[in-house]
């Protein structure tokens, strides 16, 4: 048995997060022809999984912070945002309590398209930096993804899930029209 330290960036939790993040990004880059309901169903399945994987990301001490990079351009972000906003239409906006603001108890409007595009940017940057496949790039990718989970995309997923759930299931509990009673 050798006493070689394990590369934490190549552990199962990190590799699974990279895989799911890649799937999330691939879907968003190719879903323009999909229906709104199809997009919502995909988000309903992948966002909780992405959140769960984010909770398992290890703490990584970055040796070379200068190896950190961002890749997603403003134009790429806007393409994803615009496509989603057009798909979601009137269902895009929803209300959240913004806990970033001290003593904030009033709801604020949020945009599903904006939140998903922001998550896309964080995930795409994570995947592309990780795929550079140097130890320094994997360290930075993992550390940055973990930090952004705690400060950004984890919170966004937590806000999106109830809205997506409502969109998909708002009429499930309603009786069929022929069983409804009329109120005179």
| Shape, per Cα inertia axes | globular
Distance N to C terminus: 81 Å
The CATH architecture assignment turns out to be: Up-down Bundle
Q: What is the subunit organization of this protein?
A: single chain
Tally of separate domains: 1
Spatial order of strands in the largest sheet: 1-2
What is the structural class? mainly alpha
Can you give a write-up of this model?
By secondary structure, this protein is mainly α. Helices cover 59% and strands 5% of the residues. The protein has a single domain, classed as Protein of unknown function DUF5063 (Four Helix Bundle (Hemerythrin (Met), subunit A)), CATH 1.20.120. The protein has five helices and two strands. The radius of gyration is 19 Å and the shape is globular. It starts with 11 loop residues before the first helix and ends in a 15-residue tail after the last helix.
């Amino acid at each position: 048995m050798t006493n070689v330290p394990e590369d934490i960036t190549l552990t199962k939790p990190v590799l699974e997060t990279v895989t799911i993040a890649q799937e999330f990004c691939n879907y968003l880059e190719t879903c323009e022809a999909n229906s709104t309901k199809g997009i919502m169903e995909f988000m309903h399945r992948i966002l909780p999984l992405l959140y769960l994987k984010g909770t398992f990301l290890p703490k990584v001490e970055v040796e070379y912070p200068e190896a950190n990079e961002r890749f997603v351009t403003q134009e790429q972000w806007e393409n994803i945002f615009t496509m989603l906003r057009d798909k979601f239409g009137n269902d895009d906006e929803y209300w959240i309590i913004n806990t970033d603001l001290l003593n904030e108890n009033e709801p604020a409007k949020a945009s599903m398209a904006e939140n998903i595009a922001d998550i896309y940017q964080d995930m795409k940057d994570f995947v592309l930096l990780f795929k550079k496949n140097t130890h320094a790039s994997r360290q930075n990718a993992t550390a940055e993804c973990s930090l952004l989970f705690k400060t950004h995309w984890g919170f966004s997923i937590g806000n999106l899930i109830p809205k997506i759930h409502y969109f998909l299931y708002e009429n499930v509990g309603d009786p069929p029209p022929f069983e409804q009673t009329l109120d005179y």
